[in-house]
Amino acid sequence: MPWPMVHFAIASNLFEGEPSPDFLIGSIGPDAIHVRGEISREEKGTTHLVSNGKLPQKDVILHNCKDYFSMWPDMKWKDFVLGYFSHIYADLRWTDTIYADFERAYEGDQEHIRNTYTVEVSQLEFLLMKSMENTEGILTSLKIAKGFSIDPFVTRQEVEQYRNEKISWLRDGQNEPNITPIYFPIEKVQHFIDQTSIELKELCTNWRGRV
């Protein structure tokens, strides 16, 4: 799955460099379950609408997004919901493209594939931070976001705690591996961000009206 900066970069594209705080915090909402500590794949899958070990297809994501979107007229809630389900859609596209390419190209020991992924996408987070002109604005906007509970997936407290942890991690330069990614070059990932943004823009416009 892509890490936060990929989701933030998509959000930035969708909103022409100025995504709302509510969309931003929603865009990492499904991963807030990690604040519970050690969780199983099944538990994480619940917040991502995973069924039979697979992420939901586009129509399932759209159906759930529409249902939650209509629950409350407040625009902050609606932006949060759009961010939440945009995250799931981006995860689906990443799994089918970028990650699938990684699994095919990986030449190392299979026991180390997860570690290789973690190191490379960690580096990618910092490369995106440095390449995006509005990184500071995004992190500042994210910091002031209040978040929401989205039943039965995650609570507002979990979403905000996860947000705080991710900001802290991103602002700590010691977390940068200082490597050149082999499997996740920034050019390839940027193409993914641009393409996924195009797909999501059409979907989001149908509901939000001003994306």
UniProtKB/TrEMBL annotation:
Taxonomic source organism: Paenibacillus puldeungensis
Q: Which domain of life does the protein's organism represent?
A: Bacteria
By its UniProt entry, which InterPro entries does this protein fall under? VbhA-like
- State the protein's name: Antitoxin VbhA family protein
